[in-house]
Design goal:
Elements: E1 3-6, H1 10-20, E2 26-29, E3 41-44, H2 46-55, H3 58-64, E4 66-68, E5 70-74, E6 80-85, H4 87-93, E7 97-101, H5 102-113, E8 118-119, E9 124-129, E10 133-137, E11 142-145, E12 147-150, H6 157-162, E13 168-181, E14 193-196, E15 200-208, E16 211-219, H7 230-233, H8 239-246, E17 254-261, E18 268-269, E19 272-274, H9 277-280, H10 289-305, H11 310-339, H12 344-356, H13 359-370
Parallel strand pairs: 1-2, 1-12, 2-8, 5-14, 12-19
Antiparallel strand pairs: 3-7, 4-7, 5-6, 9-10, 10-11, 13-16, 13-17, 14-15, 15-16, 18-19
Helix pairs in contact: 1-5, 1-10, 2-10, 10-11
Bound molecules: flavin-adenine dinucleotide.
Residues 6-12, 29-32, 42-43, 123-124, 151-153, 157, 175, 177, 215, 276-278, 284, 287-291, 293 line the site of flavin-adenine dinucleotide.
Amino acid sequence: MNTAIIGAGIGGLTTALTLQQRNIDVAIYEGAPAIKPVGAGIIMANNAMQVFQQLGIQSAIEKAGNKISRLRITDPQLHDLSVIDLHSFEAKYGVHNVAIHRGALQQILADAVGYEHIHLSKRLSRIEKNDDFTLYFDDHTAIQTNVLIGADGIKSVVRNQLFEQSQLRNAHQYCWRGICEMDLHERHHNAPVEAWGKGKRFGFVKIGAKKVYWYALINSLSFTTHGVNLVNVFGDFHRDILEIISNTPQQQLFESEIIDLKPIAKWHADRVCLVGDAAHATTPNMGQGACQAVEDAYVLGKLLDKGLPLEKTFAEYQRLRQKKARMIVDTSWRMGQLSQLENDWGIWVRNALLKLVPPIANQKQMETVFRLATV
Ligand SMILES: Cc1cc2nc3c(=O)[nH]c(=O)nc-3n(C[C@H](O)[C@H](O)[C@H](O)COP(=O)(O)OP(=O)(O)OC[C@H]3O[C@@H](n4cnc5c(N)ncnc54)[C@H](O)[C@@H]3O)c2cc1C
């Protein structure tokens, strides 16, 4: 059986590595001419790091990134509203949450998979289903494959051509991401911060020596998004935040609408399955989109170890993964709305309630996110 994976994002690469470690031959087809992710950072949370530990790339990722041990939500002046301590999870699972440059993470994954297995400039345009799958690419080439894995992101061609119609949802939040070089104050070294304001928020985290990744979101129905000066938009936020924005070259900012995929019923059919954003793209408010893609790969790998027939493996994969992925999509959507309230009274109540949440409740919630499925 030969296996084709469409997409060399975090989901496709982690799946490839997982299959290779089980002696399954994979070929990845990536539409882009290079593995060149957006100039932004990413947080790989404890659940993803547990998987990377099993794949043998945990320490490379930790070395290239920055370990974090607390999660902070603050008001615009960086006064804490909620602080989640991660030490108990580090002790329990033996891994840290890590903030890292996306490019560095993808490089580590691609190196581990081997570039000879990654075919670049191969954008899938059409799939013909016969006994096998015939994949047609934009460069007028075609290949045959027995097994097909769609890891081609939120706008997945595999999903759109082989599964029922799906729907993308616009959260009406507009996002800027950037990386700047600066010495972040020591108090921010091991804790990402997300500062919640009125219809807008700003997050930042250290991803390496003198490297800070940040993101800013505003409600796109209430604010102008085109050609804005972010220092003005976030003028009422703490001076550390304004310094971060000012230290980032404007032309290196990456802008996007925040969208997700309305949960779909089926992630598999015969010998095809979807992983990562192609199956369950979420808004980024829990920092779990890529971590969930990594968990997909983990569960697929564990099921393959059981030696079930492929169709049963894919069906079990969906059964074991769908509920948690759905929980992330739903919770993240609600968090996005809550974090960008515009009503003063609503903001006051939200902030008061956040301060009242007992640490045990936060720990319980994190446990549901960090615990991997039992396969
Ligand atoms: C602002 C923001 C912040 C985020 N922060 C975090 C975070 O901190 N932690 C976290 O876990 N997640 C985060 N996420 C989510 C994360 O980025 C995604 O969930 C993750 O990248 C999904 O990985 P993937 O491999 O499934 O898809 P993608 O990253 O979208 O990769 C898909 C790949 O397939 C390729 N492709 C697409 N179509 C085709 C085709 N037709 N033919 C061939 N190749 C194709 C693409 O070029 C791409 O390389 C964030 C998202 C956003 C928007």
